[in-house]
Amino acid sequence: MEKKKVFALRLKEELYTAIEQWAADEFRSTNGQLEWIINKALKDARRISPPKTETDEEEKVQ
Description:
62 residues, mainly alpha
């Protein structure tokens, strides 16, 4: 299991409520939703690589 960093995050109540509702709509915890949002933003900004898929590996072979 990957090691996770714990830290405090201060959010405006309105922002937290919106994230909390979004998380509930997608059956995630609020923490899980925040992690998903941050991960997606980093991928979109090309700050981290998207995970490799089987399709990626098949394209390299051909």
